[in-house]
Protein 1
Amino acid sequence: MNHIEKIHTDLIIIGAGAAGLSAAIAAQRKVNNILIISKGRPFQSGSTFANINNQWGVTFAENETEQEYLENRINSISKGTNVPYLSRILVQESCSAFEMLHSWGVEFKKDKNGKISRVAPCFCTEPLAAIIKACKQFAESCKKQIDWDRVKLLPETKAEKLIVKSGNLSGITARHKNKTTINIEAGAAVLATGGNASVFRHHITEPGLTGDGYKLLKDIKNEAAVRFSNMNFRQQVWEDISFPKKRFPVSCLWKPGYLFRSKDGEIARLDTLDTAILHGRMTHVPISNLQQDREVDEILLGLCRSHRAIEVFNSETGQCEYRILPFVQASNGGVVIEENGETTLPGLFAAGEVTTGMHGGDRVGGMMITNCLVFGKRAGEAAAALVQ
């Protein structure tokens, strides 16, 4: 028989990535007893700390002109699949989120003059994103912000069930890697479990992103329905089948002289497409879900049937330089939240990639980290206020 433990805490945070840690750091100012559970190794796993690039970007608008541009871009590329007031909050608080990271001591890439560099994120033409130097340095900065007298960490522990009583969240059931079952009572919880990219056969994310949060929420649908949106939308990128050993430069999609051949011998070239469509495709790495330039990728998707890689030839040399397939990078769908991360289940808040609304079927690059910081902080503060 498995050993069963019982724990009582004020607030549970499920997930120890950027969203969960932002929630904990915000909540610790008001609540003395916070428990973070993480199925992986804290500060070492998840897309926040373990990704192929060892870095990520955070997009922010530091003045009214940039705010207007960024909000318009989000609304434009979402084509009605976002919740505009959530997008507005995200944009308006994006600079504060960046400044918070800076105050933590997070190091960003700089230009030759020593100023933090900003680059144009996907789906934008204006330089709005700053790039961290390394995930490890970010992790060390995060650790220093946590009040370890108020926050306890339960690593390698997976949340298995949300406990609902009288229509309210009252705790969770979790399981430690040693098979111990843990029943945790709490006044509120923040769900920050990330997306589900790694459930797909071809993906470029840390393998722990299996969509646990989605499963937790769907398992309680008969007791307290939680609404989802945009679940059909995910981010895919073209990569060589030997990834991560060899990567496919997306610029080859519009470079003249490249031919794309299926295993059945069908050949396509993309540089003959409408210039405006190709120009739009140049502004983002992921395959779009809603933009007109998806026409570029539809041609290739038609060639790679049944997970059979497309051979990319350089017509000048006659050599096959890449064998590519679409790899899943991130989720754009999730649970619908209110402005402070509230779900429709009282006592349950959510933040980060498990949520949607602040973006839609397509997402501006670097805005997922912004989402984690902005709505993680809001969810942590709101959850703390509830348990107080």
Protein 2
Amino acid sequence: MSSESLRESETVELKKSLAELKEGLVSMVAILNKHGAGELWFGVAPSGKAVGLDVTDKTLRDLSQAIAAHIEPKVYPHVAAQTVDGKTCIQVRFSGQDTPYFAHGRAWMRVADEDRQLSAKALQNLILVKHRQGLLWDNQPTDLPLTALDEAKIRRFVERAGLPWDTPANALAKLELMQDGRLLNAARLFFAKAAPIQLRCAVFASTDSATIIDRHDFDGDILELIEEAQKYILKNIHIGMRLEGMYRVDVPEISTAALREAVINAFCHRDWRDPDYIHIAVFKDRVEIRNPGILLDGLTIDDIRQGNVSRRRNPLIADLLRRIQMVEAWGRGMPLMLENAPTVKFRQVAGLFIASFDRPSFLEEVPQKTVDKSKETTGKTTGRTTGKAAELLALLRLQPQTTTPELAAALDLTVDGVNYHLRKLQKMGLLQRVGGRKSGNWEVLEPADSAQAGRVGV
């Protein structure tokens, strides 16, 4: 055998002599914990050059006993003398799937050609990976009775999935949502009569979370909340338009396809053991979709940005969404998101995975913030408004005695959101309060010139 074929890697470790036995056993464990199989050579320098050993039957027997004594759980490697470039060396070929493995009481992981001791957290994750099928939340039995599920929801899902319908129990069995006569957790997320989960959404006045101008919590099943999340985002970002022939087509400032993939990913891959919620946060400069649960198995953000990489925390939920064409079996969600929104940013903070989409409208507004203060003061009485602020002014021109709760209902805002716009409009000099809080009314100071509307936002 030629030494040219021997190079250290994630699955191959080279040692010059048996004096490095302890380090060699550490490498075996590191490779087993990462790849499940590999090779360890004695008598070969790290450069790949064969230096040779004095090998006897006792040498091989002692090496096998050392492996048995110092590696747990037990492994049963093939230990043999091999000739490399005319010199006698020892080859140890090993494999095992009973992770985590320990050498001299410690667990290690292979990174390139190095061995790194596992932290307590990393060791815990390795154990969870090993037992994942038994620990997956979505396929665990629940005490929820069949009568707690909505038959109409089950029927709609079955029809959408193109499956035949007979009874709810048989339909759930075909969807693999029952085990030994008991419902699994995923069935509750999709079909429970009582809203099983909650989605939290908010719109913020600036680029941070200091001031909330709208907040809404939605209760429902997983399919309902996926739709509510998308609708909430589209309601609170700018929508442009383009003409296709004789028809107007709405064009949101963020790709709806990318947003949809991000929302579905959040529900599909969140950690359902974590009691936190999925959050939709709409800021002036971005939209963030946050879900509990960081990436699995050492997967990095760089990995997912390269596409075609998928680790499923909830395979049963993912399979149900695949059945109704909401996700693809090949994990194409991330590539589709990147294709439609190349500037999307991902980060992991405090156990949350966050997808962040830039809002182009914010960049268009930035130059307005640098306008000379004297021009800003002069322009107060002719300021123009868009969106909810413009709608609010229009309502108050027609009905100046409208109350704040009535404005909130008419504009689909919270009372806090209405008060935010009222304060902004008063500060701009476009609105003032005449009389007391109960007996007074609003006076719009901006000229009612519809041709001016829709130019500069507040």
Protein 3
Amino acid sequence: MIRRIKLLISIPVAVWDWQVRLARKLFRQPGPGTCVILYYHHIDAKDRANFARQMDDVIRFTRPLSITEYDKLSPGRHHAIITFDDGFRSVFDNATPILQDRKIPYTVFIPTGFLGDNPNWINSSEYRNKTGGVISPEELRELNQDDKLLQIGSHSVSHPQMPDISPEKAHEELKKSKETLENILKEDVTFFSFPHGEHNEELLKLARSVGYEKVFTVEPTLLYKTNQYAYGRVNVEPYDSKWEFRLKLLGAYRWMPLASLLKRKLIGKSRKALAGLLLYQGGSETFFMVPGPEVTGWLSLIFPFF
């Protein structure tokens, strides 16, 4: 139900974009180049055919770019960058052959503390087993040498909720993961993907100080500019429906961060207003409403998916 609502909201966004492109074509104004960065996690063997169809759409509707080519947006063209978080073997087993066959560049972000091991941040044992675990250092080195389409980035050491740890620990997660990967690959690692996409301004400064050229989050974004430091990405799954995937690929889900911000602001304002609401006053005692989920829950009914 939630996925269907997201899709329905995204359709008019896509229609608007189509109208803008048509108008620019009529007036011979190509407009700026655009780009969507997609990110996956696990690719199951049963989803290989669906993933292949998605990559066919990437070729059909966009110009695929390597993550190192983020600054090469051609005017009037739409581009896509393919990324994977977590470094699961399932990606290399089931997605890599499809990407190689179509010559689509891709980037994998690795949590170095789990190289050759199972991801302990995943609660579902069934899902954890399907991933095949994180690839080993030896496999990573071999794959990086053999596959010219592959780019490796860091995904921290222990895959923590980074805003919840100390600045010292965050600095260690950023620096140590970078150094580990560089020792394995014998090349610079300059891209970082925040675990769970969670970050703040202090973490961005730390990442820059450690030497990351660009960092990546999980807010759906349609990119026009390439001079920023943090880049949002669109979450996709190999089992997304055809139109769901195409709308994501075209950047039509970019309304979601704005809706999330609106929800947070509305909830914050409603809590402040309700906190001062007098419910009952008798004698020397005054009772005030303390708003909680039961009071502001109507906002979650309006925005259930942000």
Protein 4
Amino acid sequence: MIEPWNITVVQPAVKPVFKGASPLRRDALRENLERACEHVRVAAKWSRSKVVVFPEFFLHGFQPGRSNEDWIDASLRLDGPELAELGKAARAAQCYVAGMIYEVLDDWPGRFWNTAVIVGPDGEVQLTYRKLYAMTGKTRPGDVYDDYVRRFGGPQALFPVLRTPLGNLGCLVCYDINFPEVSRCLALNGAEVLLHISSEGRSSYHLPDGGWELARRVRAYENHAYLAMSNCGPTIDGEGPSDVSHGHSQIVGFDGRVLNMAESAGETMITAEIDIEALRRRRARASLNFLAELSPQIHAPIYAAAQAWPANHWLQRPGTGVADNRAVEAEVIARMTRNGVLVAPSASESAGAGALPQQT
């Protein structure tokens, strides 16, 4: 039997490694790392937490307008000293630590990846998940799908789940929350606690009761899974204002109800109790059991026939940023419209459409 345990979500202040057009500030990465290790120690000491979750960019910060080459220069390796240092903190606290790094891989030179990691109480990286959905210059597994599957394998590599004595943990990053397939595939691979490592600004889509927050609650409810979302806190010594993040990190129960939420965008921690045995009793119940009642075979032909975003599109070269990906998206929308999946709006309606916020 697994006794209930605590999970802590950290909403940290972060110093970006780039400020405007400045060169890479490696001292900023070191400061962010030291701050994160201290947060791990405090979460274990104050809340006796067994899992500590950090947001997207908790080591690098975020600065728009930088080139792929800049982010490659700032990127880390899974066996590098930064994650080794985080591993020491996890080992000392005897907890699991999750967060995101920009990563480079020797198999794909000239590219960088947005990679979620879970470091275990042994100090080692025990899970890596590379972000599947984004519109910036980073490479996603689908961009080089055939090569990626050959290198890492299929469903388990794309939707990895870490089985621990506390229960089964899975990660998704930021924009991924808007695609129910990501959380569902993690759940079908056994995930019981979804760690949503995010970075969300002040768009209406992001705020409490906005689309992203509603999606989190639905993802938890439809998969009978806990969900812990960590968002960024204040920006320290950045180019713009310090409070570009809306904060409101949250922990959601497997019934879709919010268990705890940060009430501001300030640097803080929130904690909630995870009762894995209660979750497992819910998943074993033969009533409104969405995972057991799902018939994936009846949906598979529609998915297989859908001509949406192409696989392997950036195999020969990486996309350089939002503009490259928006051009592909425009082609996909046009094709879906020709095929009758989408219906074009009238000219007057389309002319009034506003731009959506940039996704990270």
